[in-house]
Amino acid sequence: MRQNEQRIRVKEGIRTGIFGLITNIILVIIKLIAGLIGNSVSIMADAMNSLGDTFNSILTIMGFHIANKPADREHPYGHQRAEYLSGLFTAIIISFVGLQFLISSIQKIFKPEGINRSPLVLILLILSILIKGGLAYFYYKKNKNMAVHSTAIETLMKDSLYDMFMNLVIILSYLVETQFGWLIDGYVGVFVAAIILRGGYDSIKDSSNDLLGTRPDPNLIYQMEEVLNSYDNLVGYHDLVLHKYGPNMFFATVDIEVDSRWDLLHAHQVTDAIEKEFKDKFAILLATHLDPIVLNNDEQNALYKVIKETLKSYDKNFHFHDFRVEETATVSNLHFDVVVPDSITTSDEELYQKITHDIYHKIGYKYHLYIEFDRNYVLSK
């Protein structure tokens, strides 16, 4: 993402947080009035949930503001992960509010109190549903229009949808208790608190996954693969690794296999062109590593073919790279790395025994085999 686009994104994120803050303050006032008039623990629980939402909006504003700070000595990859932190803190607050009112609702089950009948309470609850529904739609539209998806705003949107559902349940509970006299307010409060806790758990999980790191968008990987495949003069590529330091801060590394007869200047020009294309198309800073492959040696080409046929006989998705022959005065060493498909559960030690046995059976024992195993790379070719 370009710097100007990032500034626009942050500006929209802060505006979204401010709008949510003002809206939730209004909702807190409405629900507190309704809860006090109706003497309802479930309505008061929902009011405190909206109070938590005001803090969530503040955290969202702070998260976008911090995320916009440039890289510095202590944070060389920038501050964009602050958005993930704001989403995580928001989820923790949601969970804390849910836990507190779970306790209060259980207490009211054992010591039930009737709620007060008032048309104003019903009007205020319906108004809160309409406001919260509008806020959820606002969050949805903003998140959809933002250049890069925001977990923090998605958390706010989900919380608003939970609130709408809870308000509907509270209205039904209020109508049942005022019409039939059934003291179900405490039970409904438990139900509301459980929904809050579930939403908090889901949001904590999503934000934690962003902080820990998740698999990149497959469509992005496919587009990067297309760029690499467009360079016909490459022998191949492997070990593409993508590092994400925020919603739009990506760094990547890849090993580029080239003909060993290339001079360094030509190799540098090719890798430099690849890195520039990644930066222009994806705003990704790519670092390339050269792997020279010997192509003008009949014996090495025959070894390469034997290894490929052996691995493909196990599974068509097996690949290998970093193939090289190391000749010394006393011994010949054959090195290569094997990329193990996700579907293969065999241990590296078992694979090593099988591969060496099969290759030695075909080429004899002239070479000492040195095999490294790669698993779970983002992309291997």
UniProtKB/TrEMBL annotation:
Q: Where, by residue number, does the polypeptide cross the bilayer?
A: 21-41, 88-107, 119-140, 182-201
Domain Cation efflux protein transmembrane, residue spans: 19-212
Q: Which residues form a coiled coil?
A: none
Subcellular localization(s) per the UniProt record: Membrane
What are the Cation efflux protein cytoplasmic domain coordinates in residue numbering? 216-292
Q: Which Pfam families match?
A: Cation_efflux, ZT_dimer
Would you say which domain of life the source belongs to? Answer: Bacteria
- Which InterPro entries does its entry note? Cation_efflux, Cation_efflux_CTD, Cation_efflux_CTD_sf, Cation_efflux_TM, Cation_efflux_TMD_sf, CDF_Transporter
Per UniProt, the keywords (alphabetical) are:
Membrane, Transmembrane, Transmembrane helix, Transport
The main place the protein resides is: membrane
Q: How does it sit in the membrane?
A: Multi-pass membrane protein
Database matches in NCBIfam families: CDF (TIGR01297)
Which family does this protein fall into?
Belongs to the cation diffusion facilitator (CDF) transporter (TC 2.A.4) family.
Recorded hits in PANTHER family, A to Z, give: MANGANESE EFFLUX SYSTEM PROTEIN MNES (PTHR43840:SF50), MITOCHONDRIAL METAL TRANSPORTER 1-RELATED (PTHR43840)
Q: What is this protein called?
A: Cation diffusion facilitator family transporter
Species assigned in the record? Enterococcus lemanii
